[in-house]
Amino acid sequence: MQLTNEIIENDFIERLTAVLPRSPLQSNKLHESDAELIDLPGGRILAVTIDSIAEEIESGLYSDPYLIGWMLVTVNASDLAAVGAEPLGIMLSQTFSPDASSKFIEELQKGIRDACNAYRLYVMGGDTNFSGSMQMGGCAFGLIADNRPMTRIGCKPGDLLYSSGPLGLGSAYALSRLINKKGLGGAGIQYKPAARVREGLILRDIASCCMDTSDGAIATIDQLTRLNGVGAEIERPISEFMIAKAVEISRQARLPLWTLLAGPHGEFELIFTVSSEKIEILTDAFSNSDFKPLKLGKIDVEPGIRILSGNNMVSLPGAKIRNLWNESRGDAERYIAGLLEINKSISP
Amino acid sequence: MQLTNEIIENDFIERLTAVLPRSPLQSNKLHESDAELIDLPGGRILAVTIDSIAEEIESGLYSDPYLIGWMLVTVNASDLAAVGAEPLGIMLSQTFSPDASSKFIEELQKGIRDACNAYRLYVMGGDTNFSGSMQMGGCAFGLIADNRPMTRIGCKPGDLLYSSGPLGLGSAYALSRLINKKGLGGAGIQYKPAARVREGLILRDIASCCMDTSDGAIATIDQLTRLNGVGAEIERPISEFMIAKAVEISRQARLPLWTLLAGPHGEFELIFTVSSEKIEILTDAFSNSDFKPLKLGKIDVEPGIRILSGNNMVSLPGAKIRNLWNESRGDAERYIAGLLEINKSISP
């Protein structure tokens, strides 16, 4: 049995919510979907999510105000995408530094505006605060078109595992920002991920489960397998579904490819599963579109995540990988040393 | 003409939202209601609000974790009360200090739980972050029972002005916490205001406009008069509608009574107006209840706020009073000196 509370973050959330009663109107249980699903009196399902840009600012991962604004909307829109909701609006809670310049604020608001336009979301309201520590919070909501949301629950052994796009950009960008201060060329990485809102609306009828890679690809696949009591076989070579920039950075930094899927900073793709009967529907659904889902592997009855190493499948220790960032307490060098330590243990 | 953007906070909000298009589904304009009002496809009106406890923690105004939790829910529930919404749920965005103790977190969550129980709200979901600077954000939503929300717009000259309860506790508590470190006895003030959710549901059919005193009573009355192009005559002596503790503190601190209505930290009562034809309905509505609305005065055609000083009515400079906290940059002594300066100018 893989427990959700083996993961430090899951355990913390379970402790926080232990004393809080659950609404009878809420149809998802804890951890079971990227956005909360609420049966409104009157028959519609409201999807709601809340997410902040705080640690990313404090750690220096995001400093460009336009990017902060763009990401504030994107992280929330991505949760709506992962349940297949039609976006309606977003509420903002903006805590500014008292010395924030007009120019900074203007660029931030432009990032918010452009992301809202991209996802057909509207800023409906907000709250402003001033503090030494800048934080940007958002709470987005939308409706589920025919009351059948997509959730993290539902995949079965034999289902195929997909990503909505190439993976690894989140880790590659973080690596370039936080580590590659030594002239490894990583600073040139462009990071402006787009939430897969349109794709989510279509996948809702096709996928057996779905979750976004906001916390990185391995965390996503690990969480899905834990929640569904299954395992994942990533049979495809990582280089075939990893974004080129991440492959490049992994070589420059001499890191195994899989570690670029391990970082807790993601790229906001959707990881989803499709039962074998629905593969044709998936292909048809996107035949006239630019969007090409990437096959990663398949769902298996045996718990855990396995990846290809040479010609062998090797097991990744999901909990260890996911807990490593918490345990490294924000120290990126220590985190990477931990990943390399794990890499030794997984060689076949 | 009284402009909303004479007020620093209003002006800042107008600048923030200038580049953001407004949703065609949103029925309230900027500033016009305590919660945002959204016409959901399907015919229901969703009320949504977002509010954080950030400055209150940073300034030391709130330090007890139970109070922080209670207030996090209360500030949001109060906005739902002021539009007459039936509460449904609240989303939380909790940023903890990395060294927050289990005991601290437990007490915080108990405050959240108890406030949710008091308002029949449920925590539906959340987001957790860690940062040197603790901040607690909430986004609450509810439905408007028969699609007729209460807003800040609608009062007319001749309408009577009420408060849902005695005023001044917010300022009295802030004064006791931030200033009275000199043994003036203020530390004994209990502050645990309750959002007027039940009263709001009833007032929705009676009041011509409504707003909560989250930013203090004078800010509330000033905002309502600006938005409606009217003025307010507070004909009743302040001591008759001020909470006893605030009257006491004002004497100890040798501050004029009105200054205890001026502070930007409120008590979460509802300020509302009722047309003369509906006074009887108001009395009847609460005849079998403990709840007794307090009459403050009436709405007048002449802009501004006037209060009783001895036997004379004197004008309060609304914009000056409301901008003083911003201009004092968090320095409470300077703020109070500013209030006393204003007091000199208003004497008849």
Secondary-structure blueprint of this entry?
Two copies of one chain form a homodimer.
Chain A: H1 8-17, E1 36-39, E2 45-53, H2 55-58, H3 65-83, E3 85-96, H4 102-119, E4 122-130, E5 135-144, E6 160-163, H5 169-178, H6 197-203, E7 209-212, H7 217-228, E8 231-234, H8 244-252, E9 270-274, H9 279-285, E10 294-300, E11 304-309, E12 312-316, H10 318-328, H11 332-346
Parallel strand pairs in A: 3-4, 8-11
Antiparallel strand pairs in A: 1-2, 2-5, 3-5, 6-9, 6-10, 7-9, 8-10, 11-12
Describe this structure as you would to a colleague.
The structure is a homodimer. Chain A is globular, with a radius of gyration of 20 Å. Chain A has a seven-stranded mixed β-sheet, with helices on both faces. In chain A, strands 1-2-5-3-4 form a five-stranded mixed β-sheet. The first copy, chain A, is about 35% helix and about 25% strand. Chain A has helices at about 10-15, 55-60, 65-85, 100-120, 170-180, 195-205, 215-230, 245-250, 280-285, 320-330, 330-345; strands spanning about 35-40, 45-55, 85-95, 120-130, 135-145, 160-165, 210, 230-235, 270-275, 295-300, 305-310, 310-315. Chain A has eleven helices and twelve strands. Chain A has about 350 residues and is of the alpha+beta class. The interface between A and B is large, with 65 and 65 residues.
Features:
globular, five-stranded mixed sheet, 23% strand, seven-stranded mixed sheet, 348 residues, 12 strands, alpha+beta, homodimer
